[in-house]
Design brief:
Helices cover 33% and strands 23% of the residues. The protein has 366 residues and is α+β, with helices and mostly antiparallel strands. It folds into 2 domains: 6-99, Arc Repressor Mutant, subunit A (Orthogonal Bundle), CATH 1.10.10.2120; 113-364, Penicillin V Acylase, Chain A (4-Layer Sandwich), CATH 3.60.60.10. Strands 1-4-5-6-7-8-9-10 form an 8-stranded mixed beta sheet. The chain has a 6-stranded antiparallel beta sheet with strand order 11-2-3-12-13-14, with helices on one face. Strand 8 and strand 9 (238-244) form a beta hairpin. Helix 3 packs across helix 4. The radius of gyration is 19 Å and the shape is globular. GO terms for molecular function: acyltransferase activity. This is C45 family autoproteolytic acyltransferase/hydrolase. Keywords: Acyltransferase, Transferase. Residues 129-355 form the Peptidase C45 hydrolase domain.
């Protein structure tokens, strides 16, 4: 694979957005088409998707002005309607809202929640005393992605892997030593209140933080539209896992220097975890990633993490995931990006596609 492209974005939010939009106009057009096709396959026509996406914009402008301004810049730079950029940035919320008709949200919406395998390594478990977090992000092969290299005066510089058109990022790290990765989760309560602060806005606010407590705050301070897992770390050796449902948060801390997570709730005392019903491989990946790292505690280094993230036990739905050529290609994921972050050095090693087939390329936060 040729690797992810990297785009330096500077200036005010609108200026950064314009540069983003101009640089990835074709990819944004492709992503819009991909998601519209997914919605249509799930029984939601294009007009309704555009209508519901547009309805979120005034709320975003009122509550998260900088995010909305950067989205508007992407729309201007790519010469696309703002509701199409909103669709990419708010796809979970638009998905939930599009199904709101007074009946129960269909389980088919769970198929639009991305999968992942994540891990965190405390200094005592690593070979060099550094703090590491890593992830295989499993998502639709058709979606176009790139690396945002954001350099600004109004917040920390950061690196984030994102989808073309999305200003929030999927995961990343900033110059203050804060990094995060995520995992899709699902409960029956997801989508009951789609107007709450959007998922990808919360991710961007993690990267805006200069302290670990202010990185945690956007995840837990307000109730959420849906479920998601956040593994957040700091270069000083701190790791925390936040399993979030709409009104519930479970706090998980490292054991033996490790944190790991896949696509099911580890703590099910207050939630009904249901994504593993459709994706039982989450249970296999969860125990597998933990076991592979536990046997290396005290000597874990980037090569250890690469071997772990390349593991293909239960192929094709292992830690390193491949498409299964199912009847529903739009629900068939592969590992879009594998990432290993050294929070002490401010470095990200990334692959474009399943890591067994790709070389990790290194990016440094400015």
């Amino acid at each position: 694979m040729s690797g992810l492209t990297r785009q330096v974005l500077t200036g005010a939010p609108h200026e950064r957005g314009v540069r983003h939009g101009e640089s990835y106009a074709a990819e944004i057009d492709h992503n819009v088409g991909t998601y519209l096709d997914v919605f249509e396959t799930r029984g939601v026509d294009t007009d309704r998707v555009r209508e519901r996406a547009a309805a979120f914009i005034p709320r975003l402008e009122a509550d998260n002005a900088d995010y909305a301004e950067e989205m508007a810049g992407v729309a201007a730079g790519s010469d696309r309607p703002i509701e199409e950029i909103a669709l990419i940035n708010l796809r979970y919320e638009v998905m939930y809202d599009a199904y709101t008709d007074g009946s129960e949200r269909p389980a088919a919406t769970d198929e639009m929640v991305d999968g992942c395998t994540s891990c965190g390594v405390e200094p005592k478990a690593s070979a060099d005393g550094h703090t590491y977090i890593g992830q295989n992000w499993d998502w639709l092969p058709a979606v176009e992605t790139f690396v945002m290299d954001v350099r600004r005066d109004d917040g920390p510089n950061f690196l984030a892997v994102t989808e073309a058109g999305m200003v929030g990022g999927k995961f990343g790290l900033n110059e203050c030593g804060i990094g995060y990765v995520v995992n899709g989760l699902a409960t029956p309560r997801d989508g009951e209140n789609p107007s709450r602060k959007p998922t990808h806005v919360r991710g961007r606010e993690i990267l805006d933080a200069e302290r670990l407590d202010t990185a945690i705050e956007p995840v837990i301070a307000t109730d959420r539209p849906g479920s998601r897992n956040y593994l957040i770390g700091h270069a000083n050796g701190e790791l925390l896992d936040l399993e979030t449902a709409p009104e519930v948060v479970n706090y998980r801390y490292p054991e033996n220097g490790l944190l790991t997570h896949t696509n099911h709730f580890e703590d099910r005392t207050r939630v009904e975890s249901r994504l593993e019903r459709r994706s039982p491989h989450s249970l296999v990946r969860g125990m597998r990633v933990r076991r592979l790292l536990e046997r290396e505690v005290g000597s874990i280094d980037p090569d250890t993490l690469k071997r772990t993230l390349r593991d293909d036990f239960c192929h094709p739905t292992g830690i390193c995931r491949y498409v299964t050529e199912s009847e529903d290609a739009q629900a068939d994921f592969h590992t879009k990006v594998s990432v290993i972050m050294d929070l002490n050095e401010g470095r990200m090693a990334l692959t474009d596609g399943p890591p067994r087939d790709a070389t990790y390329e290194t990016y440094q936060v400015a």
